[in-house]
Amino acid sequence: MKPKKLLIASIPLIIFALLVLVFNSSLKKDPRELETKLIGQAVPDFKLASVTDLERVLTNEDLPKEVFLLNIWATWCVSCYAEHPYLIKFAKEYPIKWIGVNYKDESKNALAYLAKGGNPYLYSIADVQGTLGIDLGVYGAPETFIVDANGIIRERHVGVIDDRVWHNKILPIVEKLQSEQGAN
After folding, report:
1. Whether the model pTM is above 0.70
2. What is the DSSP letter of 172?
3. Total Cβ atoms within 10 A of residue 124
4. What confidence tens digit (pLDDT) does each residue in 116-158 have?
């Protein structure tokens, strides 16, 4: 009878220990490092309008055939307003193409946003319904994907790109991919 009471008494302790292990492993994860199954895969197929010319249909064929950055943005996104001046700066200082994906937004708002803040993008895709965003596994805006010359997603950054993120994360990966591309 005594071993049975001991077993019953230890159940809460075992559950508590398991919960501690689960919470401890969760605390070690960076919340900005969201999972994506697209690393190593091509940018999903799309057929959407251009923000600046709604009559123009853009597809994967319009993507640059060199390393580029695919930036998810929207006028409803407060963080995008903080990020935008950095994108303008980096687009001027570095020969890297930026493709925008205007996510779940109205084109008239997007046009006004770009007119006022400047346009760092080669072009922006009008993803009004969020279909491309869904295919990319976007959680929100801003998010940026680093894409190689073959259209393969190599990295994803969730959140604002500022000087620190640019120099410590984005630029080193872009330069590595560019040097690999130049070697081929």
Report:
1. yes
2. H
3. 26
4. 999 999 999 999 999 999 999 999 999 999 999 999 999 999 9
The CB density around residue 26, as the number of other CB atoms within 10 Å, is 9
What is the residue-wise DSSP string for 24-52? HHHHTS-TT----S-TTSBPPP-EEEBSS
121 neighbors 53 (Cβ within 8 angstroms): no
pLDDT value of residue 37: 77
Answer yes or no: are the C-beta atoms of 137 and 37 closer than 8 Å. Answer: yes
The residue behind tokens 């853009």 is 58
- 96-112: pLDDT as tens digits: 999 999 999 999 999 99
For the four alpha carbons of 105, 106, 107 and 108, in that order, the dihedral sign comes to negative
Tokens 């493709």 belong to which residue?
99
What's the CA angle centered on 44, arms 95 and 75, to 5 degrees? Answer: 65
Distances, alpha carbon 63 to alpha carbons 44, 78, 123, in Å:
11, 27, 10
DSSP 8-state symbol, 98? E
Task: Give, as one character, the DSSP assignment of residue 146.
Answer: E
CA distance 34 to 41: 16
pLDDT, one tens digit per residue, over 29-68 is 444 454 567 899 999 999 999 999 999 999 999 999 999 9
d(CA 32, CA 180): 27
